[in-house]
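Give me structure tokens for this 308-residue protein.
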Amino acid sequence: MDKIHSLRVFSRVVETGSFTAVANVLDSNVARVSRAVSELENDLRVRLFHRTTRRITLTDAGARYYERCQQILADLDYADAEAGNAMNEPHGTLRVHAMPGLGQTHLAACIVGYQARYPNIEIELVLSSTMPRLVEEQFDVSVVTARTLPDSGYVSQVTGTSYSMLVAAPSYLEKHAPLRSPDDLDGHAFVRLQSPASSTDGWQLEGADGDVLLNASAARYRINDPEALRVALRAGAGIGALAVYSAIDDLRAGTLVRVLPQFQLPTRNVYSVYASRRYVDAKIRTFVEFLKEDLSARLAAQEATLVS
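Here you go.
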């Protein structure tokens, strides 16, 4: 029995909760994964998992063993990385997840700058509005915009801030009375971005006089992609909320106009999220540091331009 391999397989099963998921990640099959765990249990003479036809759960002994395994494997990974200089010099492939709007407007360009600084890094960027399971889906970093993050056990760092505002096409606004306050929005057509990060309660507008909750749950058009939302708004579908980084080009071109410019939606943080572990690979560490420098500057400059 390869004890180290069995420890890694056991840890992956704990983290994913599935023999099948581990088999997919390791490009193996369920029988081999199950055999590795069984061999480990036979060697230890203790049952690590309770198994049923529907799920597997850790035994008390398994939970204690997992805690020890995490420390052992982290030390081993660190020793391997240190020997290969991976802790100091970034190299290899970095898999990055990002939400579509931010990924399309800023992150793709940030990655070009990062690779110019670290030419030994290859990057795979995947855009999705759903926060991934980093370990199971083998992502190194996820870049998301949110007011707060769920308690996932991941490590997160703030790499910038942004906010959204209400916008509409001039062709739509020409057909309606002037908008001077949130009360004037009654009877308008709303277009909503529908994603896990979006509020289902409505738009919370912030102004100098305090917060205003605008109920947009009766939106006639719901879209799960910010670029598609932008296209629909330009076509005159109604009033919608876009992040500054998604709306700025249309505002400059005049194809969209800001509605109630004295109000904005609450500021959200841009987080870089990565799996919690004792030692962070240099490619992850340097990428997050680069985003703090480059992405935050891009967002701040864009918002300053909007204000001016």
